[in-house]
Design a protein that fits this description.
Elements: E1 4-8, E2 11-15, E3 19-25, E4 36-42, E5 51-52, E6 58-64, E7 67-71, E8 74-78, E9 83-86, E10 92-96, E11 102-108, E12 116-117
Antiparallel strand pairs: 1-2, 2-3, 3-4, 4-11, 5-12, 6-9, 6-11, 7-8, 7-10
Length: 121
C-alpha cells in the first residue's frame, strides 16, 4: 500500500494519494479472524493501483458515486447500490468516474488479506 496507517478514535485508516481506507473488521483489529471489511473513500478522478489478493475473494459494494472496475481483462461500471465480486488472485482496480468522491464497502474472505501489486504499473 502507498499510505500511512493512522489510529484515531478506535479506527485504523490508511491514507493514500487516491483516497482513504478505514478498516472496520479484520485479524489485525482483533475482531474477526476469517473476514476483513473496509470502508473506502475514493477521491474524485482518482484510481487505486491494479492489484490482486491471492488468499481471498473481494466484494465491493458502492454506496455513493460512480466507479469503473477493471477485473482481469473486463471492466464494469458500478452505480450506487451495485456490487461486484472479484475471485481470489485476479488483478483488479477501480477508478472514480463520477463528479465527486465515491464511497464503498469492501469485504474480504480472509481476516488478514494479502495484496500483490501488478508488475509494470
Amino acid at each position: 500500500m502507498d499510505g500511512v496507517l493512522q489510529h484515531e478514535d478506535g479506527e485504523y485508516r490508511v491514507v493514500t494519494t487516491w483516497g482513504t481506507i478505514t478498516w472496520l473488521a479484520g485479524h489485525s483489529l482483533g475482531n474477526a479472524d476469517t473476514i476483513g471489511m473496509t470502508r473506502v473513500l475514493l477521491r474524485h478522478g482518482q484510481a487505486n493501483r491494479r492489484h490482486a489478493h491471492p488468499n481471498c475473494e473481494e466484494v465491493i459494494h458502492l454506496l455513493r458515486g460512480l466507479v469503473q472496475c477493471s477485473v482481469g481483462a473486463d471492466t464494469c461500471d458500478l452505480l450506487p447500490g451495485e456490487t461486484v465480486c472479484i475471485p481470489a488472485g485476479v488483478y483488479h482496480h477501480y477508478t472514480n468516474t463520477g463528479h465527486g468522491d465515491a464511497e464503498m464497502i469492501i469485504a474480504y474472505g480472509a481476516g488478514d488479506r494479502q495484496i500483490v501489486l501488478e508488475e509494470g504499473l
